[in-house]
Amino acid sequence: MPTDKENPETIIGLYQRHADAWDRDRRAELITERAWMDRFTALLQPGASILDIGCGSGQPIAKYLIERGYKVTGVDSSPPLIEKCRARFPNNEWIVADMRALSLNKTFDALIAWDSFFHLSHDAQRAMFPIFKQHANDGAPLLFTTGPEHRVAMGEFHGEPLYHASLSIQEYRELLSSQGFSVIANTIEDPECGGHTVWLAQCLSVG
């Protein structure tokens, strides 16, 4: 059983209470993420639809995509962060929703879960892969970040515990394959991307 501090259920409340602080701390432009974002968008047609899962306040990830002409739909469990997205990018769709129960009844040309999916528990992460598939068009790339090995890693944000978890690299590969995603690239603790463990996969199966 997790301790009170090692509890993924605290994440939603944390990002509601500290939305303004998180937004202030988050830079508006891409720096280390740019190479992965460019690799991701190289797989897309102009004007492609993108589902940003755990979009935060829309910066820098959604901002980068919107400025390049993509149609971004953002999902986040924090109403204050979604309100910031709506104020900044009113021509895009922003939805308050828990990614663990996401069911939008539509599919997208690409999906991204950058620095969001890893706040879920191990079991909740496993359950996300059918959700990714449910929202992916055939050929859709999926870009997401994880930890480097099976573990729980606790951080801190404004004096509160910040939960992160990861499955093993092999299990992520198996989960992707089970839903028809082929791994294009995976770098563990990429030194050129701030130590992120990054996955780029593509949905290759229909149905």
Automatic annotation (TrEMBL):
The Methyltransferase domain, residue ranges: 50-133
An example Gene Ontology molecular-function term: methyltransferase activity
Biological process annotations from GO: methylation
Keyword set, alphabetical order: Methyltransferase, Transferase
Signal peptide: none
SUPFAM superfamilies named in the record: S-adenosyl-L-methionine-dependent methyltransferases
InterPro entries: Methyltransf_25, SAM-dependent_MTases_sf
Gene3D superfamilies cross-referenced by the UniProt entry: Vaccinia Virus protein VP39
Name of this chain's protein: Class I SAM-dependent DNA methyltransferase
Originating organism: Steroidobacter flavus
Record lineage: Bacteria, Pseudomonadati, Pseudomonadota, Gammaproteobacteria, Steroidobacterales
